[in-house]
Amino acid sequence: MTAPSGGPAPQGRPQRKQVLLRLDPSVYEALARWANDELRSANAQIEFLLRRALAEAGRLPGETGPLPRRGRPPGGSSPGSPPPG
C-alpha cells in the first residue's frame, strides 16, 4: 500500500480513497453551512452522512474503521503553540 505521495503508507493507518464529487452549488452551500454548524469540514460532513446512511441501510461493512477524530491529529504540537500540560 502506498501513500498519496507515492511512498509507503504510514503503519496502522489505512489509505483513504479520494473521490471527485460534483454538486449543485446550492447543495454544496447548504452542506457547507451544516458542516460549519457541526464544526466539521464539508468533506468530513459528507463522510459522516454517507456512513450514517450506510449504517441505517445495513450496508456499512463491519471492517470499516471509525471516523477520524475532530481537530488536529494527536502527537506533536504545531510551531508556536504551547507544550501540552
TrEMBL record:
Coiled coil: none
Biased composition (Low complexity): 58-68
Database matches in SUPFAM superfamilies: Ribbon-helix-helix (SSF47598)
InterPro entries: Arc_rbn_hlx_hlx (IPR013321), Ribbon_hlx_hlx (IPR010985)
Tree of life domain: Bacteria
Region Disordered, residue ranges: 58-85
GO biological process per UniProt: regulation of DNA-templated transcription
Name assigned to this protein: Arc-like DNA binding domain-containing protein
Organism: Streptomyces pilosus
